[in-house]
Specification:
The protein folds into 2 domains: 37 residues; 114 residues, Arc Repressor Mutant, subunit A. It has 6 helices and 3 strands. It has a 3-stranded antiparallel sheet with strand order 1-3-2. Strand 2 and strand 3 form a beta hairpin.
Length: 154
């Protein structure tokens, strides 16, 4: 085996190990944030609320596509959010037979509570880092955002 092959295999092993370590760290961070910022909302409901907040108004089918789930599953999530008065359906201005969903005032309030609680937890964790570690984190954010965008495309 040539040294080029060995270097390639080592690089692939390091990439896999880094991916595994990143996955574990992200899962642990996410789980901790979910537990401490929980407002009796499921992960699917929270993700849908975040997407609705980002989109403004959206059809259920489009929301399902954006979230990568079936329209039937998204309909159940939307119904549960509507039953809790976190979203509201309004007539679609382009098609009077259809409706779009948007966040209600109560949904917006809950969404911002959850986001604030999570952000404050992360801020506390970040403040415990050294100046050098905070600098590394700051430098890594564009890379993490690029990974996030790449994963969303797939």
């Amino acid at each position: 085996m040539t040294s080029a092959h060995v270097k390639k295999e080592i690089g692939e092993a390091l990439d896999y190990a880094n991916a595994a370590a990143l996955r574990l760290a992200v899962v642990r961070i996410y789980r901790t944030l979910r537990i401490h910022a929980d407002r009796n909302i499921t992960a699917s409901q929270g993700s849908a609320l975040a997407r609705i907040e980002k989109e403004g108004t959206v059809r259920v089918g489009v929301l399902a596509q954006l979230e990568g789930i079936t329209p039937a599953s998204m309909s159940k999530i939307v119904d549960s959010l509507e039953n809790r008065n976190l979203i509201e359906r309004i007539p679609d201005s382009l098609d009077g037979r259809a409706s779009v969903i948007q966040m209600s005032d109560g949904g917006r309030e809950l969404f911002f509570e959850i986001r604030s609680a999570s952000t404050e937890m992360l801020e506390g964790a970040i403040s415990s880092l050294s100046d050098d570690e905070r600098g590394l984190l700051r430098q890594s954010l564009p890379v993490l955002e690029k990974i996030s965008e790449t994963l969303q495309v797939k």
